[in-house]
Amino acid sequence: MVYRIRRTELASPASNVKMMRKALEELPVDEVFLDLEDAVTPDMKEKARGNIVDVLSSSEITPNKAVAVRINSLRTELWLDDLITVVSGAGDRIDCIIIPKVEGPEDVIAVDNVLTALEAKNRLGKRIGIEVLIETAKAVEYIREIAYTSSRVESLIFGPGDYAASVGMPSLTIGELKQEYQGHVWHYVMARIRNTAASAGLQAIDGPYAVIEDLKGLEESARIARSMGYDGKWVIHLIMFCISGGSVGVGGDTSFDTEKPATPPTAIPASVDARKVLLLTPFFSFLSTPMTHST
User: Fold this and answer.
1) Would residue 51 count as lying in a domain?
2) Residue 138 located in a structural domain
3) CA-CA distance, 21 to 65, in Å (whole number)?
């Protein structure tokens, strides 16, 4: 497995060329994933695929920034065209494919097989990784098989919104910490993901916290994920959030300290609006050494 730092994974809708380019070239996050699924309306899917190819082919991507594409669910007719278009058009600039709504190892195998064919056909000379969204009840039941089914798999990502729906959990906001529940409402599924990822030598990435203005709730969500051993967190809104104040950059101290931000070796670019970046780097700055992948 190719090791990539994923303290922050920033979502960028593939329907918005300007936002994708800015995320790839300017915003100081570890990974940007270009979203063809939930962030794109049905009538924009085909155009969004072309947008990804155009933007990746013409952007000056920040060095050491991982680039992923979230395709549509394998339960739709869209996913195959997603893969064919983006890998054939810009596969040399794509590090990983994110598979949503996975229900079993067969989903991973299907994507793996298509990637193998596309890599050979387009003579990429590289191997594209896979990140798996664990966001259905079936995925949790088959998580071990999913984790071990392909050496392409690099991380398991918790998707709280769709998971809540799949188990009939009332939820108004993605990732919210329910006050009426006596305990941590996501503990079981998050622990399953973390334990399986650790046993398979994969990374565990926490899902998004979608209450944009609730910085306290976001901080608590990040602290819980870190305390459970998670390697990073999804970022879906471009809002600046320095957990303890001060400037935050990419990298910094390898020690983890929840009381202060990591020392930033790189300042946020002047061209970046401080209100439009969200960083959780202080909570995941401990991550600096590769993990071993077991197959």
Assistant:
1) yes
2) yes
3) 13
- Of 93-107, 158-172, 245-259, give the range with the top mean pLDDT: 93-107
For the chain, percent helix, then strand, then coil, each to nearest 5?
Answer: 35, 15, 50
Q: Name beta bridge partners: 129.
A: 96
Total count of residues recorded for the chain: 295
Domain assignment present for residue 252? The answer is: no
| Parent domain of 155 | 8-239
Q: How far is residue 82's CA from residue 243's CA, in Å, rounded to a whole number?
A: 36
User: Distance between CA 219 and CA 239 in Å, rounded?
Assistant: 13
DSSP 8-state assignment for residue 218:
H
Are 64 and 31 in contact by the 8 Å Cβ rule? The answer is: no
5-27: b (≥16 Cβ within 10 Å) or e: bbbbbbbbbbbbbebbbbbbbbb
Q: What digits encode the pLDDT tens for the residues 77-121?
A: 999 999 999 999 999 999 999 999 999 999 999 999 999 999 999
State how many domains the chain has: 1
DSSP states of 245-290: SS---SS--SS--TTSPPPPSSPPPTTS-GGG----HHHHTT--S-
Considering the domain boundaries, does residue 290 fall inside one?
no
Place of tokens 């906001």: 173
Residue 62 sits in a domain of what CATH number?
A: 3.20.20.60
d(C-alpha 122, C-alpha 155), whole Å: 25
Listed residue (30, 11, 9) closest to 19, CA to CA = 11
Beta bridge partners of 158: 134
